[in-house]
Predict the 3D structure of the following.
Amino acid sequence: AVDLVNAASHIMGELYLDYAEFEETVKVFAKECKIKGKPLPKTAGVSSRDSKALPVQKDLLAAFENGEQKAFFQLWEEHISSSVRDNEPAAQKLEFYLHIYFATYLLKHSVGKPDKAELEERISHFKAYLETKGAALSQTTEFLPFYALPFVPNPMVHPSFKELFQDSWTLDLRTRLEKFLSLTLKASQTPRLLTLFKENGQCNKEMLQHLHQQLVESEHRTMTYLKRFNKMQADYHNLIGVTAELVDSLEATVNGKMITPEYLQSVCVRLFSNQMRQSVAQSIDFTRPGTASTMLRASIAPVKMQDVPLLPSLDYEKLKKDLITGSDRLKAFLLQALRWRLTTSYPGEQRDTVLQAYINNDLLDCHSNCQRNVLKLLQSKSEVVRQYMARLINAFASLAEGRLYLSQNPLLLRLLEERLKAEDKDSLTWENVLGALQKFSLRRALQSAMIKDGLIFWLVDVLTDTDSLSDYTLEYAVALLMNLCLRSAGKKMCARIANHVLKVLSDLLGHENHEIQPYVNGALYSILAIPSVREEARAMGMEEILRCFIKEGSAEMIRQIEFIIKQLNSEEPLNDSAVSDDEEEEEDEEEDQDIMEADLDKDEILQPQLGELTGEKLLTTEYLGIMTHTPKTKKKLFPSVQQSIDEPLQRPVTPGYHRTAYPM
């Protein structure tokens, strides 16, 4: 076995030396191997240049002999590398003479008068060559006369070109061509030794890229798991606090004090609402008389979440400059990193500080009047940049303070509406634009603008065909429609296409995605407040349709449908004077509906190459700033109004928040 390995290595070594044209070294190597009795390949001592010509070399020479111009230059460009053709003087000169040869081929080889059309085509091809690639040799004395060749009526008798039509010139050109091809096109195959070296190097490079990618993904997963852990810890603290209160209540009952149902309900609301508003638990006062609660609170004191570090400050001027002038790849990586900083930060002070830094430094240029600004990335020619910009805006819109910031730019809503109608419905860009608009619909001023822009008509058309929509887009589209229908102006818009809206909503009642049912019910209940819509609904047998779903729906669904049927059979006129919801207030307050969906970071299509920085590493390595965190007291938001799950929704919500507040 050892002898076989040694023999193979000798053979591969000799083949490589021959391939690399170490001619003298090959002779010495072969001689010494013969003296020592070592085996040599059958081609030992035979140079690559002396071996059998390659098939492509034969094809090129055959095309040359037959004057087949197109076939020749097609093979020439395929098999002679562009670096040789463009940079080697010998190759450039040879190519020039070859063009002359083919341009004059018909004049020399035709029996009788050459075909006029074909001759003109060849001369035209030669002219084009002289004006493009051949122009590089126009200053060379050797070639200068030939630039007049296309314009000479009969070059065969012209003194300057007589030589071109002699057999000796053609033979000399063929010899030069053959020699050039022998040197350029290696007749022997690449040696196994060289192949092994190249494959191993490529394999190592791919392995490093793979490991680097795994590292990036692991770091991102770590941030996600840390986020989940922090949420679980917050829930745990809230649970302990509620437990302390309940223990105090039990102590009170021993002393004869009764626990009221209202009290129990308030405890339940607090217990479950914390799943949506993780940061609220820190502001709730659990203080109650009794030693039990004191002891329980003392037991969780050592693990209070008060030491969550703030993320490093960033240089926002440099960030915004690169977001506007950088390459599309850099823009996408920056948008991704800025979004991750927001979505993976710990809810509470850490996330609030990140968001306030973005807002205070006007990261998205919402307050800028410049022609080129960050928001215009929504119109980028790069699909990846548009998608990652839409993802970041959707993340901003997931937070009440972020929505307030975005709402201050009057052009942003128009940009999002344009993208909603221009992007493919199965793209993540479209999904995130729709998600952002749905969250915008929590704000009254933006609701009014969307209704005025006719978004209700567009949504109804989209929801006519739900097969092309993902679960996320279906849920957010229906929820957006419901939020707009809650307004008087929205109801009136629906009344203009009552039959179409009712048909779409009745079809959605039976959709397999049960998460959309509360929004379908809410939209139906709202628009049935309009007498003309009620008449249309009765005409199409809406009550019978609704009663079909009572038979097979859940308890909550049944109770909500009963409310809708009651609204359907109502005879009350729409009292516009009593409805003031379309009069914009000076301060556009909204409920506290902060929730970061996991969908914001799903299906990342942007992957780093070896050595590329991403995420927090990119931000803290290239864009570290000094004291750009400016703490700000968080605006007081209305606590979310809890309504009975028996009734259809009558206040704007987002699906992410509603799933947590009202689990089906």
